[in-house]
Design goal:
This protein is an alpha+beta fold. It has nine helices and nine strands. Strands 1-2-3-6-5 form a five-stranded antiparallel sheet. Helix 6 runs antiparallel to helix 8 (about 230-240).
Length: about 270
């Protein structure tokens, strides 16, 4: 771990920390995700290494695998590539100095759609990845890539939910396996779609407990409206509280691609 210098912390929660760092030998910026094992550190390290290798996926355009890992008896590090221009989709959308035309928003939405479709075909990733703007990176070519370096590991707590806006009502109510993950991811995609075009997040002014209660218990679902009528319709279909009434990704992707083509023709 002495080969990497931690520069400053960009995010932390009760499970882990995200650091901007520098790879000393190459003088290259990287992102370090620090995970702190809570129990049986020797066993957890073995699980960590095994599960890390399932994330090492290359040659998929909309997927970004982690760049490496390091571990000690106290910490587990996942090394992730650094984007000079944008970073996470969450931070990119909130950078008011960047103008994001509709064409770019559509292209990012298509990238996310295609990435999640790949996740849905991979049983090793299906239950480990939930689409949120925090675990999607925007590279210097303004392409969105699902950041597998942010996938949770099996030894991390399943009872501590961060950013509950992205979790469907059924995902907040039942344990994994007790609901349809494919339909649940459509809710997550609907929230990401809203962020892409509104550049804000529903319930952003509420704490996590209040947000989770509103969605799972009170059934106070976000009432969202976008200026683009077609995107607004797709988003609200994805946010249908009845899982079986949500569309599937293979139905949405061609519509988004067609919208982008029509926009380019203007």
């Amino acid at each position: 771990m002495e080969d990497i210098s931690l520069v400053d912390i960009s995010y932390k929660n009760f499970l882990e920390e995200i650091w901007n760092a520098r790879l000393n030998a190459l003088d290259r910026k990287v992102i370090v995700r620090k995970i702190f094992p809570e129990r049986n550190k020797k066993l957890i390290t073995s699980i960590f290494i095994q599960e890390y290798h399932s994330l090492d996926i290359s040659n998929v355009k909309s997927i970004l695998p982690p760049a490496g890992f390091l571990y000690s008896t106290l910490q587990l590090w996942v090394i992730q590539p650094y984007s000079e221009l944008a970073g996470t989709l969450y931070s990119f959308l909130r950078n008011k100095s960047i103008n994001i035309p509709e064409e770019i928003s559509l292209n990012l939405a298509i990238n996310v759609c295609q990435g999640v479709q790949y996740i849905h075909k991979n049983p090793n990733l299906l239950n480990r990845y939930i689409p949120t703007t925090h675990n999607i990176l925007v590279n210097d070519n303004l392409e969105a890539k699902l950041n597998l370096g942010q996938c949770p590991f099996s030894f991390q707590s399943k009872d501590k939910i961060i950013n509950p806006q992205y979790f469907s009502p059924e995902a907040l109510t039942f344990r994994m396996g007790g609901y349809d993950k494919f339909s649940s991811d459509m809710w997550s995609f609907g929230i990401v779609l809203y962020e892409l075009f509104a550049r804000s997040l529903p319930y952003d002014d509420k704490n996590s407990m209040h947000t989770g209660y509103n969605i799972a218990i009170a059934r106070l679902y976000p009432q969202l409206k976008l200026s683009n009528a077609q995107i607004d319709k797709i988003m609200n279909l994805c946010l249908n509280p009845v899982p079986s009434k949500r569309p599937q990704l293979h139905q949405i992707t061609p519509i988004l691609i067609k919208m982008k083509e029509l926009l380019n023709e203007k």
